[in-house]
Amino acid sequence: EVELVESGGGSVQPGGSLRLSCAASEFAFSRFYMQWWRQAPGKAREFVAKISDDGATTAYAASVKGRFSISRDNAKQMLYLQMNYLKPEDTAVYYCVTNIPSGEYWGQGTQVTVSS
Length: 116
Prior knowledge:
Shape: globular
Number of helices: 0
Structural class: mainly beta
Strand content: over 45%
Order of helices and strands: EEEEEEEEEEE
Helix content: under 10%
Largest sheet: 7 strands, mixed
Number of strands: 11
Oligomer: single chain
């Protein structure tokens, strides 16, 4: 069964940085796009970033462009999200997501809290 396990969340002050990781298993990771989504309290889930199977192409939500960077290591089956210049409005649960022929899969999420 497809498994996505996020880690790296935590509490940070505004302007700080965090690096999220997602360990993927039980599917051909290197063949598929990967995404990060987030959900803030009381709000709908929101797209954050995506990356192509080979890592050459990326796309970001306007709210994070220039501050966040998505990357992947296909040899290790790992997905990353480097988050810099964090703002209070970045507070959310962050999810690693993939959409493959057998369906759409989400990790359990990792909490990011930005507060002074």
